[in-house]
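Lecture notes, unit on protein representations.

Consider one protein chain, 238 amino acids long.
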Amino acid sequence: MSAKEFDVKGTPRPPKLKRFGVINEWQTILHAGRLCVRYGGLVKKKQGNQERIILFPGFKMGESTMFPLKHYLQKIGYAPEHWGQGTNKGEVEKYRDAMIERLQQDDSGDQVVLVGWSLGGVIAREIARKIPERVNSIFIFGSPIKGPKYTIAAGAFNPEETKRITELLEQQELNSPIQVPSTIVFTKKDSIVSWPSCIDQTSTKARHFEVKSTHLSLGIDPQVWQLLSSHLQEHLNT
């Protein structure tokens, strides 16, 4: 696989993002072309057995942004579903609690796979931290797990709230590391999220992979889809 597993040892504390460089994200259209070329090969083999997967969109993004990935997962035999919360407005704790209640009210007891893009991945991790018994595994990409402080959207949050969330996440990472298997995908070409803030340095069950797309093209990057396919085969088809 062309994506390389990332050694997190010695990763520096992520710097604050500067507000230039977003023009790099316009390369998204190029990555859409890559997906078109490789799509047939990606969906050629069915591997799932209708296992349940929940998709979490990024900050200020609606469920429609996850539709290409949802369609792909359906094609290869899984049962993906949107998170049902509409547009992600950044209310991490509110969404976490709503999803926990939803899963706990499900009498099937089945474990689910949580797949999150950007802030959606942060929410997915917090659900897994609270109810690991209901989560099979996590697959996230471009997710600032160290908090909104390290994203270009930091200004959209109240400074006091940003400080509170950052400190809370730091405390939880130290005191309650994620216990379910996690695949974390990041890109050094990210102009939205400072890529070192995507690295989980506390969980022993986290693996990291670097890809070459931009932040906005992560959801349609064939390399990300291939990594997700491998993740699902490892954790569901065993």
